[in-house]
Amino acid sequence: MTTAPKPRTSKALDPRVGRNRRGQPVHGWVALDKPFGMTSTQAVAAVRRLFDAAKAGHGGTLDPLATGLLPVALGEATKTVAWAMDGSKTYRLTVRWGIATATDDAEGAVVATSDARPARSAIEAALPAFTGTIMQVPATYSAIKVDGRRAYDLARAGEAVELAARPIRIDRLSLVELPDADHAVFEVVSGKGAYMRSLGRDLAVALGTVGHLTALRRARVGRFDESVAITLDKLSSLGHIARLSEYLLPIETALDDIPALALTEAEALRLRHGQPVSPLRPSDRACIDQLGNGSIVSVSTGGKLVALTEIDAGMLRPVRVLNI
């Protein structure tokens, strides 16, 4: 059963990217390979400019020092951002033992050091404690809001930041290699909301030392993976909307894990007007009964995506209506 994520369209869209800007009605996803040193907001703005899209957002922030997959939603695809962010993610990260920083990555000032260096056997023995549902204190320099302000803004202003531990899910954590005594490379598959900088920090502490991330790359977000990713340099070199469109993925890419129904034009029209629908076809009603209340179903008609709906007492209630 797929339950509805909390609506967060306004949070997923950066106000400087998607609001009060004119552009073309471009709808779909771009699997961007974000470069090192660029913020996610800057990357989304660059893609939006290249496509001359009226609206843009992204499926999961990457830190400036991180590289890899940043799914960029254009047009009506922004209405599916919450479901893209809900998928699991795959990362490869490098931890530097013996040095802790204020930001838990290579950007911050050194705040602690240790001569201890964990052995391979100790590292591998510690990993099971960091898999499954665990409690994690987010990085101080993070986008989490504290009394309406971003934690990183408070930290940069020199104010004390205390973030509460919260549950996250780590599906898999494996040691990939030990390049030298000071570094370890890991692969992580996680649920939403997990901070890789915090994971590296906490793992180091559990191993009797301190540490920070020196490299982070995201290889997958839900159904998006780096095999279909394209760099900004490549997109910029194309120089024409027709060629850029070859790299525009369907809106449905973010919804592959969600059950889908094809309804009649009349039923779709009711959904477009915000009205719940009870499908006429017995097979559709049987599907709804099997999925149960709270499940999310994508609805199309004539091969065109119409809405994301939630099952409520045998009815399909529109949650996000797409205007394509």
Explain what this protein looks like in three dimensions.
The chain is an alpha+beta fold and 324 residues long. It has three domains: 9-87 and 223-255, Alpha-Beta Plaits (2-Layer Sandwich), CATH 3.30.70; 89-221, Pseudouridine synthase; 260-321, PUA domain (Archaeosine Trna-guanine Transglycosylase, Chain: A, domain 4, Roll). The protein is built from eleven helices and 18 strands. The protein has helices spanning 9-12, 15-18, 40-51, 81-85, 120-126, 151-156, 196-206, 232-238, 241-244, 265-272, 282-291; strands at residues 28-34, 56-58, 67-74, 89-97, 99-101, 110-113, 132-136, 145-146, 149-150, 166-180, 183-190, 211-221, 224-225, 230-231, 260-262, 296-301, 304-312, 315-321. Strands 1, 2, 3, 4, 7, 10, 11, 12, 13 and 14 form a ten-stranded mixed β-sheet that branches. A four-stranded mixed β-sheet has the order 15-16-17-18. A two-stranded antiparallel sheet has the order 5-6.
CATH class of the largest domain: Alpha Beta
- Helix/strand-derived category reads alpha+beta
Helix content: 10-25%
The arrangement of helices and strands along the chain is: HHEHEEHEEEHEEEHEEHEEEHHEHHEEE
Uncertain segments are: 1-20
Shape category? globular
Radius of gyration: 22 Å
Residue-averaged pLDDT:
88
Give me the CATH superfamily of the largest domain.
Pseudouridine synthase
Number of domains: 3
SS strand fraction: 25-35%
List keywords for this structure.
324 residues, alpha+beta, Alpha-Beta Plaits, Pseudouridine synthase, Archaeosine Trna-guanine Transglycosylase, Chain: A, domain 4, 3 domains, 10-stranded mixed sheet, 4-stranded mixed sheet, 11 helices, 18 strands, globular, disordered N terminus
